[in-house]
Task: structure prediction
Amino acid sequence: MRWDRLFDDLEAQLAARARLELDAEVAERTRTERSKITLGERVVGATGSALVVRLRGATVVRGVLEDSGDGWLLLVEPTGRQSLVATAAVLGISGLGRPRDDTRARRFGIGSALRGISRDRRAVVVVDVDGGSVHGTIDAVGADAFDIAEHPLDSPRRAEHLLGERVIPFAAVAVVGSA
Result:
């Protein structure tokens, strides 16, 4: 009888040790999988979610994530204004849930997104990473910078309304917002 209790105790100890080893292995695999998830994958999984994005230059953009791609996020603010956010300027994002496997980011970069905005010929507000801003119409987009014709937001891009022209490097952009 005494041996039966001893063997039962040994068996229980082995089972407990096996459970601990399995739990440790599952935890390690989970950490390994999470370490492979990029910010872009986390963001694309949040499409349709309300986010608060804090940017360099003390800028904060609040809105629903509509789209994202290589180096950019597109948020629709509560006012209906659309904001193209450069991920290089992001300091933090609130509202991201767990990443989903069924979503994919667009492959094109911020330059392609800016070219699309330029084609629309609509006035925009560009906020830089230091918090400064300029408003006008994007005239041309190069490989790493774009030209903006500065004019009042309530005026069309015409010679009589031009305040100046500026070249802005992509690296200086925090957010480009629709007027």
Summary: The chain has two domains: 1-36, 39-178. Residues 39-178 form a domain with the SH3 type barrels. fold (CATH 2.30.30.600). The CA atoms of residues 24 and 98 lie 22 Å apart.
